[in-house]
Amino acid sequence: MPVASGDARDAVALALRLALGRASPADAGADWGAAFDAAARELLAPLAWARSGRFIRQNADAATTSAWRRAAMSTHLRGQRQLRLLSEVTGALDGAGVDAVVLKGLPLGEQLYGDAFVRCSADIDLYVPASQRTRASATLASLGWRSLDGAAPWHQTWTTWRDDTRHHLELHSSLVSDHLSHLAAPPPSAATAYVAGAKVQAHDGPFVAPYLAAHLATHQMPPLLWLVDFAALWASLSAVERAQAETSARRARLHGYLDWARHRTALLERAAAGDTGALGALGVGASRRRDVHSIFRHLALAASVADRVRVAIAFLAPRPARRDLRVLARYTLARLRTRLGSLVGASRSYVGDQAAGAAEGDASPMRFGRALRVERDEMLSLTGDVVRGGGALWVRAPGGSMLPTIPRGALVRIQPLLEPGPSKGDIVLALTGDGEPVLHRVMMAFDHHLILRGDAALGGDPAIPLAQVIGLATHVRDEAGERALTRSPRRSMAITVLKLRRRVERAVRRAR
Predict the structure, then answer these.
(1) Is the pTM of this model over 0.85?
(2) Domain ranges of the chain
């Protein structure tokens, strides 16, 4: 997809100024579409709207203002649902005698910005002592949560469905990631916090800053929101509290991480002012943002040679996989396929097309339209929020199951379903029984259920309830331009031959 006109560094700098509440009259004539694109990709859009919404409404075009408002609204609604879940989970864990502490998330937004719902938070993070993980797991299972991956005492991910939305929760028994478990990170101290009136036990004390620094360094291409978070936290600390944070970091051998995060904070201030050197140091170039692989960062920030060796070993053979050679072998093969190829680094493009988009509830093209670069589950949650609110947005189709109608990597516009519901031939974004998103064509609708099939697939998907349909696909946009999706599949000799070959192969397998 072509790079948006203008310099991405200007867009990122404006996004930062808006998030910090420092926009000036000189920003009035900016490329607002590019600024929103940058803010959305760096998870700054809701915070920018909270702090600079009036400025945006006064100076941005109507389409961009509407997109910005929707992003803020969807984050707010998602946060409210997450808070209800958080209250339910922590209440149940407390009743089961589990000492759970909330990490980051909603309490951090309340503490730093006075509003729990201006931070994009994809999941709930809880610290639970390792000795209590069995009880915690049983409690979550009783509430309808399902374990996705990981196991005690390591990081473990859980999921559940509420309000037609998939939510995630992560259990931790250490304040550092599994490959830093050789460090002497203390258990979190907790303090009572009130999040939009709800009472929770949240992470507090001198180790919060080192914890956030390590978390920032652990993730490859961390969004700039997390750096803004750290800057806000560090600015709120007194001289005594900063000294205590430095002492706790040194005890945990995380002082290199804390120094690194503080240096990034200084770069953030200069980057917001438009300093190209600072933006470059943050990885922001003329058209994209780049980042080295996080393993190199860990090796550079480790407190000693011995720690560097431990980090390297943990990266190649993670502790959770060492107990079972078969698990370790599968993990290594998966890493070779998906991770080692990205060791050089990662990049995030700031791209857009000024000639495409969709108005709320309107299928006609308009000037603004962009796909937000977010994780899959965050995309599903955001799409559901926007569509339920009557809006529309573009999502990327990574697979080839809808070839040639929807090319790999094309952008697809998703809008609310039309009455009386999807009909045969419509293309919908829906969730399978396993919770996986699919963008497939309706082959049959019956008794509040649908059977879907990809245009390039041989057979239909298992029937799904109508309630699992997120929205209707109306337009597709790729390098050839934008076009409306019809109820008839596009024909392709290559796809026809491929399907014929698959049928022959299937018949041969059955005959054996």
Answers:
(1) no
(2) 8-348, 376-511
